[in-house]
Amino acid sequence: MLLRRLSALAINKKVLVLVLKLAVSSFSFYLISRKADMAQVVHILKSIGLLTFLTASALYILSQVFSTLRWQLLLPDKYPLKRLFSLYMIGAFFSSFLPGVVGGDAVRAYYLNKDSRKISITLAAVFMDRYIGFVTLMVIGICAFPFSLTVFGDSPHKWLMPGFFVSFVIGSVLFFGLKLGKRFNLMTGIYDYFSVIKQQRTVIVKTLLLSLVIQLLNFFAVLIIASRMGEEISLLLLAVFLPIVITIVALPISISGLGVREGTFVILLGLIQISPEAATSLSLGWFLSNFVGSLPGLFFYFFHGQQNGA
């Protein structure tokens, strides 16, 4: 009876969290609709063209290939690149529906652990893969930040990038320095992995370079869509804006960042006189191109199930 009650409470909690996240996405879109003409947004999206969407989707898939290479370097056991790419694409597909980027990471960690049965190593490698990606993103953002000061002017939003960077550094120091939860066997294995990987400087350098390529592919995908819309955004300015957007979207407060992403685009691109309709269209266009690029993950998901007798 007690187990049933606990199970019911856990389910109710998950449902409540999902409802809250749906509410955040819905309310965000409501606020956007008060500023932007949504009919115009749909018109702009239609005008972008299929070729532009597919080009951006191809860049997204290419970024997943480089992400897989990064992940492969971080795994102590060597797995075939094809195998890891299928898991990465499965995670990417589920990220389109799950809150934040963590959802997709959890999916690929789950499937890799089914094969390796090394939960500590699996979680540590997935975490480090995501962490190095954010290290690169934060460095790009803070390096480009001084060149955006004239654009931000007196806007309070100019402190977002420095705030995220400082928070990331403090969080990193606390997590790796204090070794929270190290008394538990699971966390002990994770910290043991960190101790080993930090000695492998060649691996760290390679993963950072791969992360730089991945972020540049994201930037170019946005620039291609914006250019097709007739909006000119400098790569240097995008190097400040996108780290802010990606960081906010990574927070598990909405469904796949929907609404929150668009609201952030409207605020930031409004600083360079881009209309709310164009900013919303650019954000949705980027999301849709990534979603299309993640669709192979659905094929890999079914193939994985058949391969393992699921």
**Proportion of residues in extended strands:** under 5%
Rg, nearest Å? 20 Å
**Total number of distinct structural domains:** 1
Could you give a short account of the major beta sheet?
none
Summarize the structure.
With 310 residues, this protein is mainly alpha-helical. It contains 14 helices and no strands.
What does this structure look like?
The chain contains 14 helices and no strands. It has helices at 2-35, 38-48, 50-74, 81-95, 102-116, 119-144, 149-152, 160-178, 185-197, 201-228, 235-250, 260-270, 276-294, 296-307. Helix 3 packs across helix 13 (276-294) and helix 6 (119-144) packs across helix 10. The longest helix is centred in the N-terminal third of the chain and has 34 residues, at 2-35. It starts with a helix and ends with a helix. The mean pLDDT is 86.
What key attributes describe this structure?
310 residues; mainly alpha; 80% helix; 0% strand; globular
How are the SSEs placed, and which strands pair?
Layout: H1 2-35, H2 38-48, H3 50-74, H4 81-95, H5 102-116, H6 119-144, H7 149-152, H8 160-178, H9 185-197, H10 201-228, H11 235-250, H12 260-270, H13 276-294, H14 296-307
Helix pairs in contact: 1-12, 2-13, 3-4, 3-6, 3-10, 3-13, 4-5, 4-14, 5-6, 6-8, 6-9, 6-10, 6-11, 10-13, 11-12, 12-13
